[in-house]
Design brief:
single chain, alpha/beta, 2 domains, five-stranded mixed beta sheet, 22 helices, 8 strands, 58% helix, globular
Amino acid sequence: MTHSLKSSHSLLDKSQSRAAPLYKVWAALVVSGVAFLDLFHRFHPAWAVYGGFDDDFFYYAQVARHIAQGAGSTFDGVHLTNGYHPLWLFCLTLFSAIDSGRLFFPLVTLAAILSLASIFILTVQCLRRLGVPPAGQYVVATLVTFWSDLLLRGGMEITLALPLILLLLYLWLDPHPRSLASFFQLGLLASLCILARLDSAILVALLFVATMRFDPQPAARWLKRTVAFGCGLAPFWAYLILNRIFFGSLLPISAQAKQLRPHHTPQFEPLLSLVHPFTTVRLILVLPGVLGTILLLTLLRQQRRDSPTTNAVLWALALFPIVQVVSLCFLSDWPLWYWYFYPLVLASFAAITAWITSNSLPPKIWAGFALGITVVIFGYTVAYHLGRPPAKNPVFLAARDIAAFAESHPGIYAMGDRAGTVGYLLPSPLIQLEGLMMDQTYLQRMRTQTSLQLMLREYGVTYYVSTNARLEDACYVTREPSQSGPDSPHMSGVFCRPPVATFSHDTFVTRIFKVTATQQKELSAITSTPLIPTYSPQPPHRSPEYTAYPATLPRPNSWVSCSSQCNP
C-alpha cells in the first residue's frame, strides 16, 4: 500500500515537472500583462499621472524633493519631520536627485516593475524550498504577485518592503546549518526590512522566537546567535538613535500622531478596517487573507513539519497579521489603509503552501486554478482601469483646483486629510493638520485639543482647506484630524464666514476658508497667552528650477473665476 502511494506521488511529480515550462510561460505572460496594465495606465493621459498614485505617496515625494534640493527632511519646507519609512524615502530621494520633474514618475514606475518581478521570482524560490511541486510554484507565485500589485501600485513603501521580506524568508528557509555569520547576515537583512516597513519588526521578532522554539540548542549557543543577529540589526539601531537626536523620539512622527489616545484600552477601528468598507480589494485580498490565516493555524496545529526552519517560518507568518492588528487595536483608533494588509498576503501564501504540501493535487487541478486566476486577475484589472482612470481621481482633481487657486492667492495653507497631493502641487507651503508630517511641538499642541482657529493662527495660516465641512446654523463645522477615532485628541473649528472657494469632486467637497484678521483678534482675546507664530509666514526656500505646480498641467476645468466660485 505504501509502495503504491509513493509510486502515485512520483508519477504526479513527474507529470507536473513536464508541465512546468508551460506554467512558467503562462505565469510570465500574466505577471507582465498585469504590470503593464496596472502601472502604465498612470501615464494616460500624461498630465494626470498624479492621479495614478495614492495621496500618501506624495508625502514621501514632497519630502524627497526637498531633501534632493537641499531643504532638509521637511514636507512644508519649514518643519523637520520623520513621518515616513526611511528606506523607501531614500530611494525616492535618489530618484528626485536624478530628476524631480519628468523622469521622477517613470523611475518610480520602474521600481514597481522591478518589485513585482522580484516578488514573483522570490516567491517561486520560497515555494521550491517549502516543497511545493513545480506547477504549484508558478500558479501560487502568480497569485501572490497579483495580490502584491494591489498593494504597491499606489507608490507606497510596500514596493520595497515585500521583496525584502520575501528575500528574508528565502534565506531563513535555508536548510543548511547556520553559523554566527549567517545570523549576522539575517540580522542585516532584517534591519533593511524594518527600515522599509517599520511594523515588519513584528515578523522579524516572530521569526527569531519561533526559530528558538523549534530549534532547541544550548543556551550559550543561542546567546551567541542573539548577539550576532542583534549586531546585524545595527542599521535599525542607528535609525532609532538618529530619530532621537534629530526628531526627539524613537518613532516616526506619523506613528505618534496616530497614537495620541490618552489610554490604550482596545479600540476596534483597525479591526473593522478589514471588512469596512467592503471594497473589491477587501473581497479578493483581505477575505482570502483572513481565511488563509485561520486555515494555516489549523493546519499547523494538526501537523508539524519535519524541518524546524519550515515550522518557524509558517508559524511566524500565521501569527504576524494577528499580532499586527491586535497591537494596532491597543495603540490607535485610526482606520487601516490597504497597504497595511501585506501580512495577510504573506499569511495566504503560507496557508496555500501548507495545504499543498499536505495534499497531492492532480495536474488538471493546477490547470483549473491557472484558468480561474487568469480570469479574476484580468477581469478585475480591466474593470478597475475603466472605472477609475487617473484623470478622474477626485483627490487629484481637488488638488489641481487648490493649486490653481493658490497661484493667485499666495500665503500659508493648512489642510488635514488628502493633503499629500495638494502639498506636492501647491506653490505655497502647506501645514499638515493631522500631524503626520509635522514635529513634536505640533503633536504636543494637538494633545491639548485646542480650537482649530487657534492652531491656524499660531502657525500663521492664511488659508484653511477643509474636506466635507458640515453646515450647522449658517456656520461650517470642521474636525481635524477627520480620520482619527473617538479617543484621539482633535481640534474643532467653526467658520461662519463663507468660503472663498468651493470645489466638488465625487464624494469630496473642498472648501477654502481665509483666516481673517478679525478672527485672529477674536482668538487673541480668548487666549491667556500671546499668539506667536512658530515661524515667519514666508514661502520655503526653492531652488531656481523648482516648480511645485507643473507648467504642463492643464488648467482645471472646474476652475472658472472668482466671480462664480469664489468670494472676494
